[in-house]
Design brief:
mainly alpha
Length: 62
């Protein structure tokens, strides 16, 4: 499953997740689980933001 990331917001979320993962490694398993949950939330939020931006653009063009 390939996801092409065109959204700047999504890139910010990914960078944040990478930083969280790096910190989580020093915390141990609990930190990894926590950052995994945060990563899922961040990716969903970024995807929703991207969808709202695209839908507002298409409404303006009509």
């Amino acid at each position: 499953m390939k996801i092409v990331i065109k959204s700047f917001t999504a890139w910010i979320a990914i960078i944040g997740v990478v930083i969280l993962e790096y910190k989580a490694l020093s915390l141990g398993i609990n930190g990894v689980l926590l950052s995994g949950a945060i990563a899922v939330i961040a990716s969903i939020a970024a995807y929703q933001v991207k969808g709202k931006i695209e839908s507002s653009k298409s409404k303006n063009n009509e």
